[in-house]
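Dear support,

I submitted the protein below through the web form. The confirmation email said the job was done, but the results page showed an empty box. After a refresh the structure appeared. I'm attaching both so you can tell me whether what I see now is the final result or a partial one.
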Amino acid sequence: HSTRLSYNSLETWDKILETVFMAFLATTLGTMIALPLSFLAARNLMKDIRTTVTNLSLNLLAIPAGGLIGLYLSRWARSWTSNIENDWLRLILVILIPIGLLYALRAILKEEDTEAPTSRERAVTTMVFIGAGFVAAMWGFLLASLLTNAGTTMGWSFIGNFVAIIGEVTGLLLPVFAIAGAIGMMMNLGSKVGFALNDRLSESSIRVVNLPLAAAAGAIIAVMIGAIINWFYEFESLWVSRWIPAIVGALIGVYLAARVKRSRGVGVGMIVYYMARTLFNTLRSIEPLVMVIVFVVWVGFGPFAGSLALSLHTAAALAKLYSEQVESVMTGPIEAVRATGATRMQTIIYGVVPQIVPPYLSFTMYRWDINVRMSTIIGFAGGGGIGFLLQQNINLLQYRAAAAQMLAIAIVVASMDYISSRLREKFV
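What the results page shows now:
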């Protein structure tokens, strides 16, 4: 009898620690995703962003191009790193690659002079940055495999699971970051080309150029949206999933290019604002218990699925809270920074960020407290943690063990509330 209680206590302690670490990992990942997206969902920062039809068309065309480049580069990097099977060699490369990248980038930046770079120098710099991104992706995959192997060989199960989960999440998110980086680079290139065309061409010439660009951009984006809808509903006809969206998107692009003047531009800021808000509201409307069922089907039972579900819901919830805090900042510091001739990025860094750091910290710590409680619930759906063990004991009619685990959950939640309140009192 005492042996069973001792084993139950150790197992409960192990699962409680797994739950806390899972909530911490989900909060960290959700915060990393929500921080940049929160500025895109702030109305006061996005309402005055406008661009020309040329820039908008080239940026839209850069999305699929950058996505394909990032996808193939990440696959190439993964295939290269998969040939390295020695963990000691992986560890050496994980240490040396960041040092080499740092010295290489510093050398490139030091070679820049005050004169405007030539086209050849710009091309070389772009290729160097692409190569640095590829090497960084290789480093990420090496780190992910190293953490996964280290986690599976550790003696303490909760620490091993935590390290292994970090490795699995890193390997899963690296292609996403590679695609996002490639899209950003291609959009930056498209913006430069768009500005060059608008500076050199006349009003009538730029209208002629905008028509095919806008038609192609509208068709490609409409086809991408149609492919997403087709993934859900599985239309059998290509006319419904490809050709009709392409024709409609091209017509919308041509209409936009014909109607919008170059001096007026397109209010892309509000378009991004409404898209970001819609995305956050959609994700927040889905409970983590439903999300974890989807991730369990995708990656299997365990804390990995629970961490992914909590991270996604945390990112949506924190992005909404963060964006509303950005919208409520005082306008005086922002106007003062703009009066100095600062760029938009400098305005955000020096006029917005100092006002939002304390509430951001408060929201993040409160979300960690929420995730600890949510981790208990998603365990019932196979998301790992103490919830999975609690459901198992309830199904086996072992109510004494279940009562001990419920008491442990209550103690942990109360402790987290006390710790988070002390942290908010000290840092906020």
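Response: this is the final, complete result; the empty box was a page-load delay. Residues 322 and 360 are 7 Å apart (CA to CA).
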